[in-house]
Hints:
Belongs to the 4-toluene sulfonate uptake permease (TSUP) (TC 2.A.102) family. This protein has helices at residues 2-9, 13-33, 37-45, 51-76, 79-102, 105-124, 135-152, 155-165, 170-194, 200-222, 229-253. The protein is mainly α. Helix 7 packs antiparallel against helix 8.
Amino acid sequence: MIDWILATTNLSGNDFAILICLTLLAGLVRGFSGFALSAMVMATAVIILPPIELIPMLWWLEMSASILMLKNGWDGADKTMTYGLAIGATIGWPIGLALTVILPVAASKTLALAVIVILAVTLLAKIRMPFLATKTGLYGSGIISGIVSGVAGVGGMVVAVYVLAADAPAKVMRASLVLYLFLSAAISMVVLVAFGMMDTSGIARGLFFAIPTMVGVFLGQQLFTERLAPYYRPFCLILLIGLAMLGLARTQLA
């Protein structure tokens, strides 16, 4: 049974065990904060698999997490903002995937991790961008999110930058991110199929690692309380920066 699973996912036993731990942790953070699942996995698992192979797997992880969290996301999200971001992301996804296919593996690893660091630092520094609170800013952020999702699988953090500029409450930000990630996952499946990236290995990995991801999401949701709201984002961003910097160092030394 184990040999069949490893053959289906095209992974070694050690890599499979490591990915179980990483997806469980990423699911915990996703359930806790409402975003950062793909960023967490990309920042760590990129050492095992290149971004072009992680992206189809991440689709299944994001969709499984979104299904678990969708009810709260639908009820509490700013739907006008979320729909605008999703429309923009639909335009940006093919551009990002095209760049991922063109870039060499080493370059795409470096770019993916660098994007995570830059976005995380921007959010942690609480840099506000008033021009984003316009229709141009809304759709532009969605397009950039789609491009970044295609290249590095961290479009949710671009959306978080946009929501921060609007100074939304923690509950609204979390719910909007949950709804956005669900919509973008549904839309991106079409793009992944069109680019031939949703292969058998990607599907197998996604289905197997969706299980620890959903366990983590469930546990993370239990930690979401009003009392801890001020600490959600700083904790996740500091963790992301550390993991991404570690990944960058290891990539450069490889």
